[in-house]
Write a structure and sequence with these properties.
The complex is a heterodimer of chains A (259) and B (65). In chain A, strand 7 (130-135), helix 5 (139-148) and strand 8 (152-155) form a beta-alpha-beta unit. Chain A has helices at residues 27-37, 59-62, 80-94, 114-126, 139-148, 169-178, 192-200, 210-213, 218-238; strands spanning 6-8, 11-13, 17-19, 41-48, 69-72, 98-101, 130-135, 152-155, 184-186, 205-208. The radius of gyration of chain A is 20 Å and the shape is globular. Chain A has 259 residues and is α/β, with parallel strands linked by helices. Chain B is mainly β. Chain B has a single domain (2-60), classed as Ubiquitin-like (UB roll) (Roll), CATH 3.10.20. Chain B has one helix at 17-23; strands at 2-5, 8-11, 31-35, 38-40, 55-63. The chains are: A alpha/beta (259), B mainly beta (65).
């Protein structure tokens, strides 16, 4: 497994767990859980600096950009123009070209607006970004985003922050089977078995935030996710047994003492 | 002069973006600036003159998923 590298665009990672940095109680909790997860890539949001109350500390004082691959996102953007502006600012701030594009449709479901997502993806790819794109679990849209030149397609498992697991495992598998770029399950994972399931279906990685940040013990859940991602990946590579309708004895059916 | 800084009308004595960054105490922060919808590279802060009613967006990275 040591040479099972997760390649996305021009980047390579050992870990197939991507974590978010939102919803934590403190920067210290973010740092501790991120370290426990052994993730190498972490998403961040781009927001206005609060000019009147800047605070002494900053997320990136705790999450060292030299140590982690920072993945700026466009969370909160509802149209292509705002998403493109946001990521151009992020690239200037930190020099990051690997980005997470998400363009949302409404505030209640946070489902992606795929029309605006596609528009933004075209602009960003043409602008030299390596775009990891959040989208619906729709195989046709996934293929369209791949054709545009996105370096990874990230179908949702369920709505962002819902923790409801994988709504449509079949679609995740179909998307993966037809893809030539990494498929990352993004959103919906609630606990370790969801993460393992996503990897068993063939996902190349999973992006998890709320399930870790809102766990009673964040670091323990971060480790559970780390292990689940590894277990699911190994099971996928191992190739699972076929399912049978009836039992199949594990012990030999000959040489009984009464024969 | 008056600029629109992160959506708020703000008075500043700064004449360039570089001076504005210093005035706000943000020299050490990892930030990015958009002036009238165009991203300004850090290398150009000191040469970018501010004009009345410039629309400045000044952003940084925070926690997000």
């Amino acid at each position: 497994m040591t040479d099972d590298v997760f390649k996305v665009g021009t980047y390579e990672f050992k870990s197939r767990l991507i974590v978010g940095s939102g919803k934590y109680k403190s920067f210290q909790a973010t740092k501790d859980a991120t370290e426990a997860s052994e993730a190498e890539m972490i998403t961040v949001a781009v927001r206005r600096v609060n000019i009147t109350d800047m605070g002494k500390e900053n997320l990136l004082d705790y999450i060292d950009p030299k140590e982690y691959t920072i993945l700026p996102n466009t969370a909160g953007c509802f149209n292509a123009e705002d998403a493109v502006r946001t990521l151009r600012l992020a690239r200037e701030a930190g020099g990051w070209d690997l980005v997470k594009l998400e363009v949302l449709g409404d505030t209640e479901t946070l489902y992606p607006n795929v029309v605006e997502t596609i528009k933004a993806a075209e602009t960003l790819v043409n602008d030299g970004f390596q775009v990891m794109v959040y989208t619906n679990d729709d195989p046709i849209v996934a293929r369209t985003l791949e054709e545009i030149g996105c370096v990874a397609v990230m179908p949702l498992g369920n709505p962002i922050g819902s923790g409801r697991g994988l709504a449509n495992p079949f679609n995740i598998r179909v998307i993966k089977q037809r893809a030539h770029v990494p498929i990352v399950v993004d959103a919906g994972i609630g606990t370790a078995s969801d993460a393992a399931k996503a990897m068993e279906l063939g996902a190349d990685a999973a992006l998890i935030n709320t399930a870790i940040a809102e766990a009673k013990h964040e670091c323990l859940m971060a480790k559970a996710m780390r292990d689940a991602i590894r277990a699911g990946r190994q099971a996928y590579l191992a190739g699972r047994m076929s399912k049978r309708a009836f039992a199949s004895a594990s012990s030999p059916t000959e040489g009984y003492i009464w024969d | 002069m008056q600029i629109l800084l992160n959506g708020d009308t703000t008075s500043t004595n700064a004449t360039t973006l570089g001076e504005l960054v210093i005035e706000l105490g943000l020299e050490e922060r990892m930030i990015a600036i958009e002036r009238n919808l165009e991203v300004v590279p850090k290398s150009q802060y000191k040469d970018t003159r501010l004009c009345d009613n410039d629309r400045i967006e000044l952003v940084h990275m925070i926690g997000g998923g």
